[in-house]
Amino acid sequence: xxxxxxxxxxxxxxxxxxxxxxxxxxxxxxxxxxxxxxxxxxxxxxxxxxxxxxxxxxxxxxxxxxxxxxxxxxxxxxxxxxxxxxxxxxxxxxxxxxxxxxxxxxxxxxxxxxxxxxxxxxxxxxxxxxxxxxxxxxxxxxxxxxxxxxxxxxxxxxxxxxxxxxxxxxxxxxxxxxxxxxxxxxxxxxxxxxxxxxxxxxxxxxxxxxxxxxxxxxxxx
Length: 221
Ligand SMILES: Cc1cc2nc3c(=O)[nH]c(=O)nc-3n(C[C@H](O)[C@H](O)[C@H](O)COP(=O)(O)O)c2cc1C
Description:
Elements: H1 2-16, E1 23-28, H2 37-50, E2 54-59, H3 84-95, E3 98-104, H4 112-118, H5 123-126, E4 131-136, H6 144-156, E5 166-168, H7 185-211
Parallel strand pairs: 1-2, 1-3, 3-4, 4-5
Bound molecules: flavin mononucleotide.
């Protein structure tokens, strides 16, 4: 299953194949049966591609991301005994320019599956690269509590969130069965967050290229 997932990622990247684009890692946190999140993530992915980001999409369900018993940075600099999927994900996290996290609200916070993923890698891998949050819920508040929880976690992981969040209330009413967006306004509502993310990712990339990373400041490498 993971091998098929890798092959489809490689195909995605070969189709785009432009080294100058900003790279964004899009992560969908929900792995629940019947999840709404897949429609949200596919929609966000399309908008990112329209803005000329090079998108790698991590669907934690499709990739069968495991329950992590040991974060990679607790396995030493050689990552001794780390499963291949964790090594691949860490490499991708280090190579990307920005993150977009799509999160549902579960009990006023983020799904455990998403926290399990985020905690598996060191702050040094996230490397001062910005993140943007997309949250949603079936209720009227758009899962906003999950975004505040996520901001804290991502901040500690050295991936500060841009100030604008894209929140989708009543998510069950926003897409048809095939995931097509029913309300065109959703597209323009996503723009402020993406605009900030693009600006911050470009700024961080330029500075990284000039001076590298503040390596000694990270808690874990
Ligand atoms: C375990 C669990 C906890 C939830 N907690 C909240 C909550 O605190 N606030 C809220 O607005 N919705 C809550 N919901 C409703 C979710 O927002 C809604 O089910 C949403 O579709 C979940 O995303 P998903 O379908 O992609 O998994 C919860 C759902 C689940 C499964």
